[in-house]
Amino acid sequence: MDALGDPTRRHIFELLRRGPRAVAALAADVPVSRPAVSQHLRVLERAGLVSHRREGTRHVYAVEAGGLDEIRTWLDGFWDDALARFADAANEEGRRQ
Amino acid sequence: MDALGDPTRRHIFELLRRGPRAVAALAADVPVSRPAVSQHLRVLERAGLVSHRREGTRHVYAVEAGGLDEIRTWLDGFWDDALARFADAANEEGRRQ
DNA sequence: GCCGATGGTAAGTGCTAACTTACGGTAAGT
DNA sequence: ACTTACCGTAAGTTAGCACTTACCATCGGC
Predict the structure, then answer these.
(1) Sheet strands side by side (includes B58-63)
(2) For B1 and C27, how far is CA from C1' in angstroms?
(3) 3-state secondary structure chain B
């Protein structure tokens, strides 16, 4: 979640959404330098959102399904609770009127 | 999404998950000053994640269902694409072996 | 009408992190 | 072996932002 807070990082993440890419290929579509992309990829990997495999000298990065699922479950619990509370508030409102 | 990047802001957001609260009540459960909470609430409101209604001199904040839904749809599209790409990669892998 | 409570806003400060340039390391091609 | 391509890491700078203190506005109560 902290990892997706940065716009550039989300940009990289959405590029990876189209499929696995190497570092240089990612840096070509992002308005920052290549080392910056490397640093962002490291953060994303630490967060469990992406993974990389070496292919010769190139490092190909891809999205990790587990990381997305983690956020998803967190959001789901949140959503349910929020809806329940929202219903409670609506009931209370109706009771007042 | 940028709004949920800050840990303190997520903390406040999760407090709001239990139900609507006033600013002072929120600040009591967060290790920062009350003005800081106000600023965080402003960011959250600008992001469409919370809304506030005045209750006398108190400002009661509550989570906004729409904001959560927005993140949810974004995440859903992401999830589907990621799974599809993952399946493609698995197929390619199988074809090689 | 005055005082306390509640909370938004302004100004200022410190720290984090995002970015750059520079360097080193590894693998492939010739 | 030498060069080239590709990438991670170190060091340094800067801009943003999270936080605090101080101030002001508004609403309710005595």
Answers:
(1) B21-22, B58-63, B50-55
(2) 39
(3) CCHHHCHHHHHHHHHHHCCCEEHHHHHHCCCCCHHHHHHHHHHHHHCCCEEEEEECCEEEEEECHHHHHHHHHHHHHHHHHHHHHHHHHHHHHHHHC
**What distances in angstroms separate CA A62 from CA A71, A73, B40, B51, one per listed residue?**
17, 21, 33, 37
**Which residues does residue A20 pair with via DSSP β-bridges, in sequence order?**
none
Q: What number of residues does chain A have?
A: 97
A78's tokens? 């949140």
Q: Give the minimum alpha-carbon distance from B39 to chain A in angstroms, rounded to a whole number.
A: 18
Average pLDDT, chain A: 86
Question: Which residues of chain B fall short of a pLDDT of 70?
Answer: 82-97
Which chain A residue has the Cα nearest residue B85? A19
pLDDT band at A72 (very low <50, low <70, confident <90, very high): confident
Strands A58-63, B21-22: pairing is: unpaired
pLDDT given for residue A96 in this prediction: 45
- Contacts with A80 (C-beta within 8 Å, 6 or more apart), sequence order: none
Q: What is the pTM of this model?
A: 0.83
Cβ-defined contact of A19 to B88 (cutoff 8 Å): yes
What's the CA gap between A90 and B20, in Å, rounded? 12
Question: Looking at the DSSP assignment, which residues form a beta bridge with residue A79?
Answer: none
Nearest to A2 by CA among B50, B8, B45: B8
